[in-house]
Structure formats: structure tokens, C-alpha cells
């Protein structure tokens, strides 16, 4: 599919009822209900707090793709893109008919509804579901395992979000989208199914480079069988980790949402139109590995040194707000920032007019009697 076609589809079918970072069952259930004449969805299990875990199928092709989002409840960008995708696939647009004919998607839009509601990474028992693939101590883990075993996917899409700290390699480029073909053994063997995942990632990377050149990364493939992706890969099912990251001034992750949507459709189109054997995996190895080189704000050359600030995500009245917090006061010449403020050797004061300290939370600082917002806009 041409990138311009995908971008047009996104604009026409973006789900307007979902936005920003806080996405819960209360947000998606009305959408599912409104699509019920076209889409059969069901509750496939319950969370710790007895909330429904929904799933649905789209398509009727032979190639089966299992997708699950919000395993970490506060990672919602891929969920928004799932519903943009769902609207597209239900639209009867001729440009996506081959995907419906070639693939069957089984989608779990929110695996961890309790974590989504509380806006936390963990579930209600304070367990990271992505470290529970072997012990299977949590009901949500058992739901995913049962879906995997019943659906018998040919591909798995493990959908996540990542923090603003990541750079695409050692560059001043934010890792806006990242991927991983997880390892399946301690030796990180590049097995046949890993090669298949790598080949598909390479195709998505090629498409994304046209939109965000230099802003795609991959994660270290250190093996951990407790992670779901590593576990499914070890069962010889090509598995792809998606990580929705930061685009310039896009803390609501709306541009990233579009990029994830592009990745979905690009990958499906490739899977449908090709017998993916992993022969073309080597381009994956050229994608830079993520590094932790970004802060949200750096105030350069303050009298006390460089001041690094990270935005803390907090749920306030069912809305995610960002609270700037002083994370580092030191020489930060090895770090990059999403916003840079020059202090030119002057003292930086907090909102109370006192010297900045580690842990301070402020929405603005005072330099030379001038109030300066720590937000980009």
C-alpha cells in the first residue's frame, strides 16, 4: 500500500471518541457497542477487579494475527490506533479488502482494564503482566494464554508504549516508534521465526523513515522468558513488540498514534502479499538500538549546573496531567532534551522564588526575574 493511501485512510477513519492518554473500558465499550452490528465482540475473561476483558475478530483470511494492547494499563497509544484500524477495516474501502481477505485479526484492545482505569503499568495485584508469562499468577495472564492457545496465531503483535527518555541510537532523535523481535533463548539465537518478525519490522521501518527519518529504534534483545513476547517467540511464533514513543510536542501521542496505525497497515499489507520466510531480515540489524539520552527539559548553564526535568504523568479527575519534576542537577552535556532553556550562568529559581532543588515540582521557573514555562506551549 502507498503511504499516501494509508494516511488518507487514517484521516477518514480516525476514532474521534478516543484521544490523549487516558483510555479505559469506559471509553472503548460505547465504541464496541456502536459497532456491534458489524463486529462481534465478547468478554473473554475478567480482571482482578472483575472488569471485562474484551476481544473481537476482524477478517476471514488464513493468516492469523493476535494483537493485544494495554498489557500495561498506562500505555494506551496502540489502543487508540487499534480502533482507528477497526474503523478502517469495517469501512468496506476497496484499498483494504485484500487485508480482510488475507488475514484474520484477533484483537484484545485492553488486556489490563484495572491498570488502565488506575493509569498504572501494573494490574490491581501490583503485578507486571509482562513478567508473568511463566508463573501465570494473574487472571489477565491466563486470559492471554487461553486466547493464544485457542486462536493459534501465525504472528503475535505485543503492543506497548514507551517513555520520552529514549533516543534512536546515540543521536538527538527521539525514538518515536520502536520495535523488537524478542529473543527465544538465552543465546539470543536469530531463529527462523525471529527472522520473520525482523523482516516485517524492516518493512515497517522503511515506511516510517519516510515520515520520521532517524526516529525509529529497536530494543536490546536480552532474553527473559518471563516476558510474554519471549515466551511466545519461544513457541516458534513470530512475535513483534511495538513501542509507541514521543514525537516533538506530542505528549498526547496523537502523531504517534498515526504512525502506529501506519505500521499496522504496512505490516498487514506485506504479510498478505508475501510468503514471509525471513530471508530479508538483515535490514533489521541496521536499525539503531534505543538509548536513554533524553530528558523532557534541560535548563543549560545554570549557576548550579545543568538542570534536567522529567514530566511525571498523573491521573487527576480522569485526565492525565504532566507535572515537571527536577530529576538531575549536574553536567548534562551527554543528554538531549525535548525542550532546552538557556540560563547563561544565571541562578534558576522555583515558583516560590527559591533556588531549584532536586525533586522540585514546578510548571515554570524564574530566570533573571522572568517566568519561563517548562512546557513547550
Automatic annotation (TrEMBL):
Keywords: Hydrolase, Metalloprotease, Protease, Zinc. The keyword RNA-binding does not apply. GO terms for biological process: proteolysis. InterPro entries: Peptidase_M14. Residues 14-271 form the Peptidase M14 domain. Pfam families: Peptidase_M14. One of its GO terms (cellular component) is extracellular space. The keyword Repressor does not apply. One of its GO terms (molecular function) is zinc ion binding. PROSITE patterns: PEPTIDASE_M14. It comes from the Bacteria. Its cofactor is Zn(2+). The active site is at 243 (proton donor/acceptor). PANTHER family: PROTEASE FAMILY M14 CARBOXYPEPTIDASE A,B, SLL0236 PROTEIN. Belongs to the peptidase M14 family. This is Peptidase M14.
